[in-house]
Design a protein that fits this description.
Elements lengths: L1 H27 L8 E3 L2 E3 L1 H18 L4 H20 L1 H6 L7 H19 L8 H27 L2
Antiparallel strand pairs: 1-2
Helix pairs in contact: 1-3, 1-5, 2-3
Length: 157
């Protein structure tokens, strides 16, 4: 069941990222009308919708504990919310209003990889020593990636 839900989240995440990037691109090239929400002079970035959707989906999953179709729908909403939020990861990580940051793409690759591992990994009950060794190796890789991402911030002081 977990792998099935992970596939739904992964698919919604990737498709949302692609659609978000394509929409911003065609809008910035004036090939498509500007659909961005403006509140006065403030542009509301789509990561805000992602955060709101993550919050609502998380609360729904925790307090309602859906099953069947409702759980499948929640998995899709969660993937969409992740896509909207992490598409603008670089903006909220660096607190800069520049959409086309490499950090966003890197974060999406990491999240997609982690979700991909959930799709193909055996359940924890079936883990063997070789699985744990792989998990430790992946944790080291993620830690090194984190150091590479954060190193410019440490040395900027």
């Amino acid at each position: 069941m977990t792998q099935h839900l992970a596939r739904r989240v992964w698919t919604a995440f990737i498709l949302t990222f692609i659609v978000s990037r394509a929409t911003v691109l065609v809008t910035s090239l004036d090939w498509f009308p500007n659909l961005h929400l403006q509140l006065g002079t403030t542009h509301v970035h789509h990561l805000n919708f992602g955060i709101a959707l993550l919050t609502m989906t998380g609360a729904y999953l925790l307090f309602v504990r859906p099953a069947g179709r409702a759980l499948n729908a929640a998995a899709l909403l969660y993937g969409i919310a992740l896509g909207l939020t992490f598409d603008e990861f670089g903006m909220w990580f660096h607190l800069e209003d520049f959409y086309w940051q490499r950090a966003s793409f890197d974060a999406v690759v990491v999240i997609a990889g982690l979700l991909g591992l959930l799709i193909v990994a055996p359940s924890l009950r079936r883990f063997r020593p070789r699985h744990w060794a792989t998990l430790v190796g992946l944790a080291v890789i993620v830690l090194l990636f984190g150091v590479l991402v954060l190193k410019p911030l440490w040395s900027a002081g």
